[in-house]
Amino acid sequence: MFYGIFGYVRIYANEQNCLSLLNLCMERGYSYTNFQYDGDGGIRFDCDSITARRLLSRCQSRGICVAVLKRGGFPYFLWRYRRRVGMTLGLLIGACLLWLSGRFVWDVRVTGNETLTEREVCEILRENGCGVGSYIPALDNNSLENRVMIESDKISWISLYMDGTVASVQIKENILPPEKESRNPANLVATSDGQIELLQLYRGNCLVKIGQAVKKGELLVSGIYESPNAGIRYTRAAGEVLARVEERFRIEIPLTYEQKVYEESRIGAISVEFFEKNLKIFQNSRNQEGQCDIIEDKKDANLFGICELPWSLSVMREMPYHIEEMTRTEEEALTLAYEELERTLGAWSADAQLLRKSISTTVTDTSLVLDCTVTSVKNIAEQVEFEVLP
């Protein structure tokens, strides 16, 4: 590493001069590395450029014949390309930037988050002075941790430590206490028409029985008890009233529809984001005519997949399009209708036990209509609070 930065020289001496050269090195205290014997009895070794300059001067004054086999390292590399000023200057600037980049935050990694996303945690940190591009020597970890815990009601504990140029953040989220159940008196009211199949009650005065038909909005379980001895008592009715209900779903798929037809895309803008500073390097100056979608393709840079780099390339593409009227066949419309019905029943059936369904379809001049009648058993009881007058 030392030789690579400050340069090195590989020196050779034949069999007649090798002993004199080694004695000179021992006498003057010159250090060397990579010592090797050649097949012809000669020797070769490497020494740094400063030591080599002194050694060659002494050899010349004492008449010791040596040869320079190779010069290498950063100084000699620059000297070789000394006439290419741009390359040399670019290397120097790159080395300076590499040194400076080690003093800024390149990436923020979050652990311990459950409900908060990493983006949300990074936003909270950025608001308190820590993010990609922050100057590392200026960061006061203790002060930042205290500010985050004081200002954010979502984080109860946080620890920030720097791992090189990566800010590693561990957090513990606030656990909100569960909402207390209301103690106001309430009735159980039917949410739909149905026939009672099963009663599972915990509290309340039941006003219906199994096999009874009820209407939507009808009182099922009362939160009022009346007793000749105790008088009127109020409670919060609770439980489930399972009933056989019949529901209808209608799905309509038009036979003609409008669709976007995209034309040839073009690049609208190219920008580079470096340490969260955005630099636009290309902008399409041509005026956009007609309708157009804008699609942004952002690629974050990384070092061979090992770590993230603090810059990204963003390409903004313009996608011109025009609207065309399309026609679908009855078979295609029927397929779409069944797919939509499957999604609808999938969301609906989470709270119901399906018993039977019947499907009918009708085709008009403009659309295909699918009607589905579903018979199921579901809980139709809903708590409705009421006020008690003094």
Descriptive notes:
It is a single chain. The chain is α+β, with helices and mostly antiparallel strands. The protein folds into 5 domains: about 1-80, 2-Layer Sandwich (Alpha-Beta Plaits), CATH 3.30.70; about 105-175, membrane protein fhac (Ubiquitin-like (UB roll), Roll); about 185-245, no CATH class; about 250-255 and about 330-375; about 260-320, no CATH class. The chain has helices at about 1-5, 20-30, 50-60, 75-80, 85-100, 120-125, 140-150, 330-350, and strands at about 10-15, 35, 45-50, 65-70, 105-110, 155-165, 165-175, 185-190, 195-205, 205, 215, 220, 225, 230-235, 240-255, 255-260, 265-275, 275-285, 290-305, 305-325, 350-365, 365-380, 380-385. The protein has a 5-stranded antiparallel β-sheet. Strands 16, 17, 18, 19 and 20 form a 5-stranded antiparallel β-sheet that branches. Strands 2-3-1-4 form a 4-stranded antiparallel β-sheet. The longest helix is centred in the last third of the chain and has 19 residues, at about 330-350.
Mean pLDDT comes to: 84
| pLDDT < 50 stretches | none
CATH superfamily of the largest domain: ACT domain
The figure for the number of domains is 5
CATH level-two architecture of the largest domain: 2-Layer Sandwich
CATH topology of the largest domain: Alpha-Beta Plaits
Radius of gyration: 41 Å
Task: State the share of residues found in helices, binned by percent.
Answer: 10-25%
Class derived from helix and strand content: alpha+beta
In what order do the strands lie side by side in the largest sheet? 11-9-15-22-21
Assign the CATH class of the largest domain. Answer: Alpha Beta
Q: Helix count, per DSSP?
A: 8
Note the gap between the termini. Answer: 90 Å
Secondary structure: number of strands: 23
Oligomer: single chain
Biggest pleated sheet: 5 strands, antiparallel
Strand content: over 45%
